[in-house]
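Next comes the chain:
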Amino acid sequence: SRVVLTVLAGAALAAIPIAGRAQAQESVSNDVKVMIQALQEQIEQLKAEIDALKQQQGASPEITERIEKIEKKVDEGTAVPADNDMRVYWKEGFKFDSHDGQFKLKIGARIQNDWGWFDDGETFRKVFGDSEDGEEFRRARLYLSGEIYENYEFKAEYDFENGDANFKDVFMAMNNIPYVGQLKVGHFKEPFSLEELTSDDYITFLERALPNIFAPSRNTGAQLMNNHFNERMTWAVGVFREADEFGDNSDDGGYNVSARVTGLPWYADEGRKLLHFGAGYTHRNPDAVVRMRQRPEVHIIPTRFADTGNFSADDVDTWNAEAALVFGPFSAQGEYFHSTVDTLLGGDEDFDGWYAQLSYFITGENRTYNKKTGVFDKIIPKHPFRFSEDRGAGAWELAVRYSQLDLTDHFLLGGQEDNFSAGVNWYLNPNMRIMLNYLHATIDRSPLYDDDFDAIQMRFQLGF
């Protein structure tokens, strides 16, 4: 009976360290630490019983050696990690968390390799030359982001697409401030436009729509942001300086004030059904030369068919309205932009633009939405594409878009451009996507020129 009891005690000891290790690695809460302490007390009690058994006659040398090995494993396997030890794991990216929860870091990357084939109209070939087919790394980024002491976060992201380490999102923020929510300072996107604020990892087409020219994008400044009513409403307002690719500015003008507010009057089925509305305003104070021009939703070619040329302006005021609908695999999104430029010689000039797009997931997924920020988020395929036995098809999305930009008013003849786009997106998994777009553009810049432009583009994307 003593031998049987000894074997049972050894089996119990072999199981307890495994549970203890799992608890110590997976949780940092006080409750779990209390549980680990209780397990250690039980282990000490078992050790005492084993010592008593070893003192008794009849315990063979083999049993004694086995017990000593088990005791060694117990001592090595039940150590509780220190609060400042880091846990390294993968969750759609490399993450590092301290066991006390005070430090959370993430290392990420983004690679977008684009290919394009173009067909210019005869007039464009005469005026601009032939748009040559080509490829480029549209984005090649690395970043480190994280949370520190619960209430602070930061991000440092750099883009190497042109061979330089240019700034993208480089900021620090204080969270959970009473009434105002978050204060963010650094280089990041001004709060304006649903499509502009949605990451290029998650936008539906390779390039944002024509009216994106009116969005100020990234500059250096400070912003307050918060959400209310169970995250059904968001607002943000900030003051910025026009900055270069390294976040710097050294002139006397160049101040921007931007603001955005969004609402979710309908949100159901954990976001598979929602209705989004929003509005934004931005005031620019260039006090210098202004030029508005736009590519035909193609980045590989340098040509801007719609172009006002340089003109002197004192202020630029732009507002927009945005709306989006998600109904299961179907989604619709659109925005309207209107910009008034206070020129120094000819008074006010008015420009505008709009786009509308539809998309449908034939594999049943839906566009995901971030309620805290009021923008669209990552697509998670139901069945990621694999070559193993549990292989799936990934997520397949079909989309169409129509966009328009008008840069002609009074003496400024920037032209009007209308684009039609159709696309297919294949999400292999949450981190990889292959995109195929067809674009037909019609440009009228009378009396200078008018013609058509066609493009087929592909993108191979990795992001985490």
User: Anything to note?
Assistant: The helical segments are 2-26, 30-55, 61-77, 122-128, 194-197. Residues 1-28 have pLDDT under 50 and may be disordered. The two ends are 58 Å apart (CA to CA). DSSP finds five helices and 23 strands in the chain.
